Amino acid sequence: MITILGRVELGVQSYCYREFSNEMVIAEVKKLGMGCVELSRRHLMDVTGDGATNVVSQYRDANVRLSSYGILPLERIAHPSEIEPLFTFAQRAGISTLGARPDASALPILERLSEQYGVRIAIHNHGRDDDLYGSWDQLQQVLNHTSDRVGLCLDTGWMIDVGEDLVHVIESVGSRIYGIHFKDFGYTNEGAREETILGLGRLNLIAVMKALKGNGFRGWASIEYEAAPKNPTPSILQCIEALVSADPG
Questions:
Q1: Would you state the pLDDT for residue 31?
Q2: d(C-alpha 229, C-alpha 235), whole Å
Q3: Distance CA 58, CA 62 (A)
Q4: What is the pLDDT of residue 51?
Q5: CB-based contacts of 217: which residues, under 8 Å, 6+ apart?
Q6: What is the DSSP letter of 136?
Q7: Between vectors from CA 212 to CA 175 and to CA 220, what angle results, nearest 5°?
Q8: b vs e for 151-176, b when ≥16 Cβ sit within 10 Å of the residue's Cβ?
Q9: Bridge-partner residues for 164, per DSSP?
Q10: What's the CATH number where 173 sits?
């Protein structure tokens, strides 16, 4: 197990290992010295039935905790029954917060189900191509019009992508940051995005870690390094080293 910020367990988004089976993901997570995984839809698409039960058992039997599940595209939801299985799955898996990208029409239903099942929703930002939640202003509008059943899964890389001040965002959101994706981008002279090891792009890792500590962050924390899907472990190990070095304790 790796902890940062006092007692926040550091994990990995399984999407980093999108070309790996669940069994292989578990083996790689062990190599990283980690004990938790944020499960991507690449590793579990259908949360109903025996398939979901078997995946949860795989991780549980390996002593790897599931920190969250997502990111879930929740759009054009007409009735709670359409997405209620996500909440019952989260309860079975011991997951307290689901990562999501809901449209506005889904938010009232999500709030009701979140209250009913005790499973929160964390909205994920996704950069300049995200017309719903790309910017801090868009996220702020949602947070201002929802209860604390809805919060933020803050992706550092994608927030950098729209030129936002991460420290300002962290301080502004306060206790409604429920999860964080640690990601970093650099940019070519032509403006093309290039994913980097944490701290080697535009991410001021020391300042972000200090802000999270000052905020009392206690959500789930995942490294999400997507640049090397066939063999991400060496790069993720470097990201872990960078995070631990920047940790204010």
A1: 98
A2: 10
A3: 6
A4: 93
A5: 5, 8, 170, 177, 180
A6: H
A7: 70
A8: bbbbbbbbbbbbebebbebbeebeeb
A9: none
A10: 3.20.20.150
Q: Which residue segment(s) compose the domain that 167 sits in?
A: 3-246
Model pLDDT, residue 98: 98
Task: Identify the three-state secondary structure at position 151.
Answer: strand
Cα(85)–Cα(168) distance, integer angstroms: 36
Non-local (6+) Cβ contacts of 60 within 8 A are: none
User: What pairing do the DSSP bridges indicate for beta strands 120-124 and 3-4?
Assistant: unpaired
For 178, counting Cβ atoms within 10 Å of its Cβ (0-12 exposed, 13-18 middle, 19+ buried), the class is: buried
- Encoding tokens for residue 6? 């006092």
Question: Got the DSSP string for 188-207?
Answer: -TT--EEEESTTSSS--HHH
**What is the mean pLDDT, run by run of 10 residues, along the chain of 249 residues?**
95 98 98 98 95 97 98 91 96 97 93 97 93 92 95 97 96 96 95 95 97 96 97 98 94
Q: Count of domains in the chain?
A: 1
Cβ–Cβ under 8 Å, residues 80 and 112: yes
Q: Measured between alpha carbons, how far is 43 from 194 in angstroms, rounded to an integer? A: 25
User: CA–CA distance from 180 to each of 22, 76, 124, 125, 153 (Å)?
Assistant: 22, 26, 9, 10, 5
**Residue 191's pLDDT is what?**
85
